[in-house]
Amino acid sequence: MTIDSRIVIALDGPAGAGKSSVSREVARRLGLKYIDSGAIYRTITLFLLRKYDKIEVGRDYLNSLKELSISQTFNNDGTSSTFLNGVDVSGDIRDEIIINNIGIVSDDIRIRGYVNDLLREWSMGDSIIMEGRDIGTVVFPKADVKIYLDASVDVRACRRTEEFKGKGKTVDAEDIKNQIVLRDAEDSGRPFGSLMKADDSFYLDTSNMNKEEVIQRIIAIISS
C-alpha cells in the first residue's frame, strides 16, 4: 500500500511506547517520509555542547543556531540518519551527555520555535509521519491523522529493558521503570511542548499488542 496524496501523520505518546520503531516501519511500508523530531533537539544539544562546553538554563542560544545546519535522511532499510553541518551524528546524539543536557534545550521556548519552524519546512510537499510528544497539539495541530500511542508503565519498562539488553547493555528493570515514571511526570509538566493527547487523536493502548499488531492497526487508522 502507498499513499497517493500528501498526508501528514502525527504520532505522540510517552517514553517507551514504541513510537520511533513503529513510525519508521509504517513510513517504510507506506512510502512516507519519516521525521525524527527528537533527533533535532539532540543535534542542537550536541552542537551547543561542542561550542560552549556546557548549556545554561535561561541563556539565549538562538543566535548561535545561525551557524547550524541540520538535515535528515530516511533510509531504505527503515532507519534514519541525522546530519550536523553535513556530518552524520546519528551515533553521537545518543551519548549519555546528550541525555543529561537535552532537557534544557527542549524546554527553551525560543529553540522550540526554531525546531517547529524547521519541522514544518521539512514537511512541505511530502507525505510524512512524525513522532514526539506535541506533534499533534503544537507542531501540526491540523495534521490529517493524529495518533496517541500509549502502554502501561510496566509494559513500557519491560520493552525498554529488552531494548537495552538487545544492545548488550546491563540494566536494572526497576531502575528503568522509575526513570519512565519520572520522565512521564517531567514530560506532562513541561512549560512548553508538554506531553498531551490532542482531542481529535486516535488513542491506541498497545499494552497487549506486539509490534506487528501495532503497525497494522496504525496503517488501518491511516487508511480509514
Describe the protein's architecture and organization.
- The chain contains 8 helices and 8 strands; from the N terminus they run βαβαβββααβαβααβα.
- It is α/β, with parallel strands linked by helices and 224 residues long.
- It has helices at residues 19-30, 37-52, 96-106, 109-123, 135-139, 153-166, 173-188, 211-223, and strands spanning 8-12, 33-36, 70-74, 80-84, 87-88, 128-132, 145-150, 202-205.
- Strand 3 and strand 4 form a beta hairpin.
- Helix 1 (19-30) packs across helix 8, helix 2 (37-52) crosses helix 3 (96-106) and helix 6 (153-166) crosses helix 7.
- The model has no long low-confidence stretch (mean pLDDT 91).
- The strands form 2 sheets. Strands 2-6-1-7-8 form a 5-stranded parallel beta sheet, with helices on both faces. A 3-stranded antiparallel beta sheet has the order 3-4-5, covered by helices on one side.
- The radius of gyration is 17 Å and the shape is globular.
